[in-house]
Amino acid sequence: MTRPDGLQQFELECPKCGLELDEWMEQCPKCGQNLLEVYSGTYRARRARWIRAVIVFLLLAILLALVHIILPGAGL
After folding, report:
1. Which residues, listed in sequence order, are joined to residue 12 by a DSSP beta bridge?
2. pLDDT given for residue 15 in this prediction
């Protein structure tokens, strides 16, 4: 978006609640999300716990399959 004076205007959006901000703020006035952390490059969205559980389950299944291929007589 371009301002009347010809300069580029930045629009920020809170990743938590979606509130559009027309100026820089360190914290979202609606939900309190720390925007300094989000827009500084150090922010990482948290993965849901079920995603981690699925990843661990798949890795264990692959490991078990490899053990059965390498050691067919293993009683696992």
Report:
1. 21
2. 85
Q: Are residues 36 and 17 in the same domain?
A: yes
Residues facing 34 on adjacent strands: 27
Q: Structure tokens of 73?
A: 């007589």
Q: Please state the domain count of the chain.
A: 2
Is residue 31 domain-shared with residue 54, that is, in the same domain? no
Q: Which domain holds residue 17?
A: 1-45
Amino acid letter, 42 = T
State the DSSP H helix or E strand holding residue 36, giving kind and residue range, or none if neither.
helix 35-39
Positions of the chain with pLDDT lower than 50, given as ranges: 1-3
Cα 18 to Cα 8, 30, 47, 71, 73, distances in angstroms: 21, 9, 19, 53, 56
How many C-beta neighbours within 10 Å does residue 27 have?
Answer: 13
